């Protein structure tokens, strides 16, 4: 019985001890704790100290806790004051700490020139927004600091579901205040000191602030300027939220700013489902600004459901502004959602944004109201705006700019926006996508229709775009374009205006699955568009680019297009004010364009509408003049497909142009037309060589086709060497030239200069040949190393209809070839220059009667030929005198001069 009684007594003592401990744990304090200005008792139960401030750790260590559902009310609380250290814990469901200071005080000071730590946990509440109207009194302060004075160390942690803290006015992490004599009568802060401020929102906790400033400039009345601020933030775990709401008292925007001085460094990590929420008021910019004034920021958003959410008007994300340096990454499903405007590298800053991994997303889908922005507008992204910016999208990550409203503009993306800017965008890896899209809001279009996407690479500055290893750039413009209210979907690479000076743009699309695709209304790609602009687009290694049309070198710009084992596809027809069919124009409106398409590449232009499809070099009907150059090589192909007679290739519409087709390449215009030197004043050259081919329904060389027939155009040159030209009709204008070694399948109408062979060589014509009045046929003769002769040979296929009645043949002796020796060899025989070829490929003589009314002449480089006559049956009659070499003339003149001097010399 005694043992049992002792056991009961021990148990009772233990229960009493637990009850006493629980009662004492409601509000507890130890070490340095005091109230000011009144001296009041703290705890152990619910406590209200009214307009007084509680200081924990003033000049010495101290601690303070509110737990188990207790209530504590004060004007303000300071942890770690005057080089002391203070710690605080607010814990438990129902526990509530309320701060009510007026505008002459701060409400929370953690690290007020000391070390302060505070944890809000277990569902407790820290309410710093009570008695808000009082903050309009006095100095209008009511600010909050996690690290106030220089030399402080401070931490605020809100952890656990239901745990929350909320504050009015400024919320500063890493403050650098310094006040000291002789400027002040007191000392607060360490001159040249370093402040460390940390905020953690964990495991479902909630932090609400009007604004946030992380990493700030030296402040107070008397800093040295060398003070340093370090601020770090962690928002981690499902349900963990830091919500920035904008001014609770004034209508100010929600602003989350980091590293606002060259001595500041801020780090922000959002992970495992944590979220930063920018929930500001309407009519104001609501922003996350990473770095300014030389500061540095590093921000990461990682893991599924981790996000920065913009839920108010005019959401802004700026990664590096005003000379700052900022790095931001979205990885493993981390996202930014609902933002309106994003700038990476602005106003002298260096900014870098990296998106990595499937479901990592930058969603720019917000809008800005006219009240906030001056004009209502849709999503925008600037990479390099008066600064330097780099954005990388890789391994399945995405950026989307989307517009669903008819505001002042559609979604816009610029790389290198202003002249002093540099912007770079890299999109790499399968599933990695940057997309711009606009929805239609008005069926059939009209003044109230939305605007389509616009992207500029090097608008006025320098822009670089790389799309690699399956990455994609997609522009989709669903807003309806009409003649009266055009809505273009445009990508510019170098410049963007026909009248304003442009920048420098470089774009590379390379790798299987890599793509630039423009779809929807009036899609357009401009490479080197505008005065002083330059653009270069390279498409390589099975990559693809598609739109309705592209200009390379426009309005004084320089454009370069390189296509290497890749494909370009231009299809459809514009419905706006120009209504152009599928097109590629190289050098138009006074621009200079250079294109190289090689290594098995394919260019397709396709449109079955009434505007046809065209490839244009050196000017267009809508863009007169220009200088264009195109080289097609390495077995590459060009296909121009259109309704009957509406496909066209122009080599110099009214400007100048050079096109080379070589290396087994081909150009197929179907039943359409090829123009070489189309209009008066143009100068075009088309060289086809190395087993290549071109085919069309009609070809004009210095000749234009009209609704009633054909007329002379500009200066045109077409040379076919070891290649084939196929067309129903080939016209050589008065200032046209057709020549070379090759095969022509079609009827040739010569008003100009036809020169079969190539110093010398053979040309085969499988079709009719008409020598029009004033035309000339050049036949060349050249001596060979074995003292024989080579001559041009024009071969007509069996059954060719020939009209040589107005033929004028000019025999030309090349180099030092002696016409006398050629005559003596029996070479001056019409059958050495003209053949007829049977269907079986056997050559024979051409009927001499065809030459009955033809005229003949001859000239040589080193001989003077006189008295020349030639008939098909009788051969040639002439005299030829060698022209003395220049050295011979010099010696002869010198001799004559000496003879003259001797004759004039007086007798001895």
Automatic annotation (TrEMBL):
Highest taxon, organism lineage: Bacteria
Protein name: Ice-binding protein C-terminal domain-containing protein
NCBIfam families given in the database record: PEP_CTERM
Species of the source: Roseateles oligotrophus
Keyword Disulfide bond tagged: no
Signal peptide positions on this chain: 1-25
The keyword Kinase is annotated on this UniProt entry: no
InterPro entries in alphabetical order: Ice-binding_C (IPR013424)
Residue ranges of domain Ice-binding protein C-terminal in the record: 882-903
């Amino acid at each position: 019985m005694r043992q049992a009684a002792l056991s009961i007594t021990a148990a009772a003592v233990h229960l009493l001890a637990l009850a006493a401990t629980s009662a004492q744990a409601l509000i507890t304090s130890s070490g340095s704790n005091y109230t000011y200005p009144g001296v009041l008792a703290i705890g152990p139960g619910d406590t209200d100290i009214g307009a007084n401030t509680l200081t924990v750790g003033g000049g010495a260590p101290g601690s303070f806790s509110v737990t188990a559902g207790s209530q504590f009310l004060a004007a303000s609380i300071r942890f770690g004051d005057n080089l002391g250290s203070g710690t605080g814990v607010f814990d438990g469901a129902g526990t509530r700490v309320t701060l009510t200071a007026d505008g002459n005080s701060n409400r929370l000071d953690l690290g007020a020139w000391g070390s302060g730590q505070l944890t809000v946990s277990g569902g407790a509440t820290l309410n710093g927004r009570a008695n808000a109207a009082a903050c309009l009194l006095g100095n209008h302060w009511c600010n909050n600091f996690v690290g106030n004075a220089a030399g402080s160390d401070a931490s605020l942690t809100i952890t656990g579901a239901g745990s929350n803290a909320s504050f009015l006015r400024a919320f500063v992490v890493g403050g650098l205040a310094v006040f000291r004599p002789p400027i002040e009568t007191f000392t607060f802060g360490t001159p040249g000191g370093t402040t460390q401020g940390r905020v953690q929102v964990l495991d479902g906790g909630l932090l609400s602030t009007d604004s946030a400033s992380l990493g700030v400039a030296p402040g107070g009345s008397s800093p040295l300027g060398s003070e340093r601020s370090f601020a770090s933030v962690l928002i981690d775990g499902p349900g963990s939220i830091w919500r920035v709401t904008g001014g609770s008292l004034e209508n100010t925007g929600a602003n989350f700013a980091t590293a606002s001085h060259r001595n500041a460094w801020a780090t922000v990590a959002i992970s495992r489902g944590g979220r930063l929420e920018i929930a500001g008021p309407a009519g104001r910019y609501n922003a996350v600004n990473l770095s300014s004034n030389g500061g540095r920021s590093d921000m990461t958003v990682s893991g599924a459901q981790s996000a920065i959410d913009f839920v108010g008007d005019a959401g802004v994300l700026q990664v590096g502004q005003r000379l700052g340096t900022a790095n931001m990454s979205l990885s493993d499903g981390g996202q930014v959602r609902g933002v309106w405007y994003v700038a990476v590298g602005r106003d002298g800053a260096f900014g870098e944004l990296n998106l990595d991994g499937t479901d990592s997303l930058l969603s720019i889908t917000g809008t800005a109201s006219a009240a906030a922005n001056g004009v209502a507008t849709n999503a925008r992204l600037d990479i390099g705006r008066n600064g330097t910016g780099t954005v990388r999208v890789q391994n399945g990550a995405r950026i989307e700019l989307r517009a669903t409203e008819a505001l002042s503009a559609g979604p816009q993306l610029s790389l290198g926006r202003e002249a002093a800017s540099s912007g770079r965008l890299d999109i790499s890896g399968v599933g990695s996508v940057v997309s711009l899209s606009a929805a239609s809001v008005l069926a059939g279009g009209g003044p109230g229709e939305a605007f389509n996407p616009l992207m500029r690479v090097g608008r006025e500055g320098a822009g670089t775009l790389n799309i690699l290893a399956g990455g994609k750039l997609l522009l989709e413009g669903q807003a309806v374009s009409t003649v009266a209210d055009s809505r273009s979907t445009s990508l510019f690479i170098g410049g963007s205006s026909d009248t304003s000076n442009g920048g420098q743009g470089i774009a590379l699309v390379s790798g299987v699955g890599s793509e630039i695709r423009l779809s929807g209304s009036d899609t357009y790609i401009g490479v080197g568009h505008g005065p002083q602009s330059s653009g270069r687009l390279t498409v390589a290694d099975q990559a693809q680019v598609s739109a309705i049309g592209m200009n390379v070198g426009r309005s004084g710009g320089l454009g370069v297009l390189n296509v290497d084992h890749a494909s370009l596809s231009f299809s459809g027809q514009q419905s706006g004010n120009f209504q152009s069919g599928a097109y590629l124009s190289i050098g138009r409106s006074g621009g200079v364009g250079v294109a190289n398409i090689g290594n098995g590449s394919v260019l397709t232009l396709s449109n079955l509408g009434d505007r046809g499809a065209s490839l244009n070099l050196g000017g267009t009907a809508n863009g007169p003049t220009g200088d264009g150059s195109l080289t097609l090589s390495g077995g590459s192909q060009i296909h121009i497909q259109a309704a009957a007679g509406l496909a066209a290739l122009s080599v110099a519409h009214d400007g100048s142009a050079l096109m080379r087709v070589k290396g087994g390449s081909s150009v197929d215009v179907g039943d359409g037309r090829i123009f070489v030197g189309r209009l008066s004043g143009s100068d075009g050259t088309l060289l086809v060589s190395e087993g290549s081919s071109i085919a069309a329904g009609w070809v004009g060389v210095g000749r234009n086709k009209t609704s009633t027939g054909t007329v002379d155009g500009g200066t045109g040159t077409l040379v076919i060497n070891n290649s084939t030209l196929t067309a129903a009709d080939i016209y050589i204008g008065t200032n046209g030239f057709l020549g070379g070694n090759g095969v022509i399948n079609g009827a040739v109408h010569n008003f100009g200069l036809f020169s079969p062979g190539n110093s010398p060589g053979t040309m085969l014509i499988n079709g009719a040949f008409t020598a029009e009045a004033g035309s000339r046929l050049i036949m060349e003769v050249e001596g060979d190393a074995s003292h024989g002769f080579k001559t041009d040979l024009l071969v007509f296929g069996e059954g060719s209809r020939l009209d040589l009645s107005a033929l004028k043949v000019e025999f030309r002796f090349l180099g030092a070839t002696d016409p006398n020796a050629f005559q003596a060899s029996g070479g001056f025989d019409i059958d050495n220059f003209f053949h007829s070829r049977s269907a079986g490929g056997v050559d024979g003589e051409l009927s001499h009667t065809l030459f009955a009314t033809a005229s003949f002449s001859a000239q040589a480089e080193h001989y003077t030929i006189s008295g020349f006559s030639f008939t098909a049956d009788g051969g040639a009659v002439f005299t030829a005198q060698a022209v003395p070499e220049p050295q011979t003339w010099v010696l002869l003149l010198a001799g004559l001069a000496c003879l003259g001097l001797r004759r004039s010399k007086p007798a001895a």
